[in-house]
Amino acid sequence: MKTKGIFSDFAKGLWKQNPVFRMLLGMCPTLAVTNAAFNGLTMGIATGFTLICSSTIVSSFRKFIPSQVRIPSFVIIIATFVTVVDLFLKANFPQIRQELGPYVPLIIVNCIILGRQEAFASKNPVINSISDALGMGMGFTCALVLLGSVREILGTGTIFNQQVLGSGFQTWTIMLLPPGAFLTLGILIGVINKITKVLEAKRLEGAEN
Amino acid sequence: MEINKQVKPGSGFLKIVLTLMIITAISGGILASVYSVTKEKIKYQQKQKIEKAILSILPQTKQVDEVKVNSYTLYKCKDEDGEVAGLAFIAEGPGYQDLIKVLVVMNTDLTLIKGIEILESVETPGLGDKITKGEFKKQFKDASSVLKLSKGLPEKGDKETVIQVVTGATISSQAVVDIINTKMNEIRPFLQRN
Asked: Which range marks the domain in which residue A80 is found?
């Protein structure tokens, strides 16, 4: 059991290898459901839950799944969990399920989940895989909430349905539509790249002195 | 000579088939049990949605009875005296993105639409989805049973109620009017017989 790496396996999903801002994975739901901060949060939690469950199962049985059929096996496992989440939402939170619409079943083909199974869970022990899934799930959720908040504030003047901008503010409806999603995401990625460069330069400076 | 260097020892044909069979069998089992556990609750939620919509249009409704006429499902809305206060049905048809499901509540004579509720729709947020907002829906209150869509104001001599488009940029409002008119034409002969 690789105990040393457990925390770094978790932390990398939050910043260094953030699935949305650095790895650019799972773009479809990222752009589609972030028209409101709450929708982004719910999607992030649903995806994170599926990721953790799938990684646990895949990692536990990694020695038994033949490599030639690993992708179909991963997809079946992921699809089972997503359908369970979908039925759960339909039964207990129908309004939220309706808000998310077609994007709940689309979690099955979210690159982040399949990608982490292939790149990590199928090759690492269970604890590390769970840690990796937790980190990636949280990183994804934070990215979605950030994107959703910006789009919601500029698009409707609210955040989590609480009015924050006065009625004098002319809402930017484009923020609720796909172009606004792309623009916001692009700008956020640019900002994060810049921050990363500055931090890296400072770190090198510190190392030299 | 090694033909396939990637094959792990023991990953023969039998193991592949067996693994996939086991995985799909377990998956099927889990899904079947979760489905049966949530089935009743989901049906209940859908019924709640319809009843809540009917209540918002006919507040005197105390009970909703589901009846089947030929292949159509109708909802009899009864008030607290057990009298039928209105009849409701669900109409479905294509919208801009996907199907739109409309609940139409009518008076007992079937001459007036008391109101509508959009049960399901995936229209463009901020544009087409204005059909789900009160501004659009209240046009249907006490509307005639045949509807007409217009961008402008009602013309003199319009016998039908004229519904204003939500915006020229989307067909969502046209879809709603078409869906209701179509269903009404289908159901009218059956309704009048009852």
From this structure: 6-208
